[in-house]
Every structure is written in structure tokens, then in C-alpha cells.
Amino acid sequence: MPETPAEWKGWEEKRIQEEIISKQGISIRRRPPTGPPTHACGPFDFKLQNEGNTPRNILEEIVWNTEREVTEMKEKTPLGALHKALPAVDPPRDFIGALKARKAETGLPGLIAEVKKASPSKGVIQPDFDPVRIARGYERGGAACLSGSFENLKAIREAGVQCPLLCKEFIIDAWQLYYARIKGADAVLLIAAVLPDQDLLYMTKITKALKMAALVEVHNAVEMDRVLRLPGIQMIGINNRNLENFEVDITNTESLLQGVRSGIIREKEILVVAESGLSTPDDIALVQNAGVSAVLVGESLVKQDDPAAGIASLFGKDVSRAAQKNETIFV
Ligand SMILES: O=C(O)c1ccccc1NCC(=O)[C@H](O)[C@H](O)COP(=O)(O)O
């Protein structure tokens, strides 16, 4: 129990924070509650598993690792250095505009194609991983936007790919928003299962100040309703993957868009993106009929040797810009 007034104050603040987090249905703890998952025991060289401090699921483990990584990255490149570097970076591209424009051109949801070698649930998906080759293929095949990690984004932008870029890192600290911009991001992913409302609001404001877009990701009805109550949200991603057990159910998109929610989304002019588990034209039709304007697709595309052909088979037709031009000429 706390003893000094300062300890009591810290204890009280932590309790209030925990109350807010549990009210908002946030299942992911930002850091181990009382220290690292294992601790040394006595003078001997062995460790005891500290059960309470073991991550409860893979997302929690990722968040705890990210917390350590970000602390180290901030030491190497403090916020002041990022501020100084900002003016030399190319201005952000219009991420939401690109998705809407592709949808208007093709009649199909705008595609955010994910550049990734591996995923937490499947491990390595594309052993012959060359981010620039894949990004060029996606652009040629008709993707509106691309997504990837800090390092992949930088390589893709420097190679001259024009599509707007989504930073698909696990964001837990506002510092990462500046870092993403420096690496060429035009949009960032904010996960409602990880970030309480206060953080979502603060981070969406910084994202806007940096002239980027925020894709706020939800997995369930509680998160969706929380995010719909927040002001200033322009884009919501509905993830069809259950974060606890990795099971994918693409009807999650449809379920979360039913009832009054679709009215609120229309009224607030929020662009909705369906995420995870999409691999066929039928899947695309299902989420499009549910009301989404864009899709985020990773595994089913990245595992193909020809990413452009992968996009055509995902949509059941050639949605490349070249095909679109020909259609316009011959109509
Ligand atoms: O993909 C995973 O295994 C995963 C596990 C835990 C947290 C997040 C995870 N993925 C992030 C994503 O959102 C997907 O990469 C994205 O929606 C694309 O999904 P897919 O088309 O199924 O690769």
C-alpha cells in the first residue's frame, strides 16, 4: 500500500486511469502492471515467471515491445530533432481523396494494399520480400494507397511510388506520429483497442496538424460506438480479425455497420474501410454492400508472385489505371 502523500497521489492517478480504461472496454494494457514479465530471484541465476505481468495476448505483447522500442528510438532521435527535419520532407498526399477517387473511377472500394513480409498470426507470408517491387506492382495493379512499416514506407517513397502511404505501426506515443511523417507517411493507424478516447483525440489532432489522415481501427461494437462519439474522426477501419485468437470473420464489417451507426457515419461523412481476411470478389461485394468505401488487404495480395495480377483476381477485374483509361477512351 502507498505510504507517503506522493505515493498516494500516484496510486490514486493510476486507479482513475484504470477505471477510465476499463469503462472504455480497452483490453490491452499499455505496459506490464508491476515490472518485466520475469524477475531475478535471490542471488542465484534463475528467474521466476511473474504471471500477472505476462502479456494476455499477442497485441498486448506487441504493445509492450513497442513501448520499449519507442523509448530507445526517442533517445536516439528526440522530438526536437524530428521537428527540425519536418520542413525538408515532401508534403503529405491526400490519402482519403485517393481512396474516394479510385472508388469513383472503378465503382469498387478503394484499395489500401499492405506491404508486409510476415504477420503476427501467420509468420512469414512472402519469403521473397522486396517492398519496392511489391509496392510498384500494387500501384500498377490499381491500388489507391499502400500501407507498411516505417522502414518500408521510406524505401517505397524514395523509389518514386506515388500512392499515398499509411503507416501501419502500432502507435502508442505521439512521437511516432512525427516519426511516421518524417518517413513519408500520409496517414497513420490508431487502434481503439489500445488507445483510450483521450489519446485518440490528442493523436487525431496532432495527425491533422501534420496534415496527415488517421485511420481509427475498431474490432467490436463497444469500440465502434466509442469512436463514433468522438469529434473529428474522418476514417474508421473495421478489423475483421479477433485480436485475442486471430480468427477472421468478414461479416464483422456488416455487423458493425448496422442500425443507427450507418446514419451517424453518413451524417459525419466518415469513410469506412474493411480490414483483414478479404481475398475474393465475393468478399469485396459483401463488405461493399455493407457500406464500406475502401478495403485494406494484406495477406491474399502479398503472397502472390505478381502483386498486380493479385489485385485483378481480388476484384474479379482489371482495376488498373491503364485499364480505366482504355475504358474511358472506348466507351
Ligand atoms: O495479421 C495479424 O496476424 C495480426 C495479429 C494481431 C494484430 C494485428 C494483426 N494484423 C494487422 C492487420 O490489421 C492486418 O495486417 C490487415 O488488416 C490486413 O489483413 P490481411 O489481409 O488478413 O492480411
UniProtKB/TrEMBL annotation:
Pathway(s) where this gene product acts: Amino-acid biosynthesis; L-tryptophan biosynthesis; L-tryptophan from chorismate: step 4/5
UniProt xrefs under Gene3D superfamilies: Aldolase class I (3.20.20.70)
Highest taxon in the source lineage: Eukaryota
One GO BP: L-tryptophan biosynthetic process
Any GO MF annotation of the entry: indole-3-glycerol-phosphate synthase activity
Key word Lyase present: yes
PROSITE patterns linked: IGPS (PS00614)
E.C. number: 4.1.1.48
Top-level EC class: lyase
Membrane-spanning segments: none
Reactions listed under catalytic activity: 1-(2-carboxyphenylamino)-1-deoxy-D-ribulose 5-phosphate + H(+) = (1S,2R)-1-C-(indol-3-yl)glycerol 3-phosphate + CO2 + H2O
Residues of the Indole-3-glycerol phosphate synthase domain: 59-313
Keywords annotated in UniProt: Amino-acid biosynthesis, Aromatic amino acid biosynthesis, Decarboxylase, Lyase, Tryptophan biosynthesis
Protein name per Swiss-Prot or TrEMBL: indole-3-glycerol-phosphate synthase
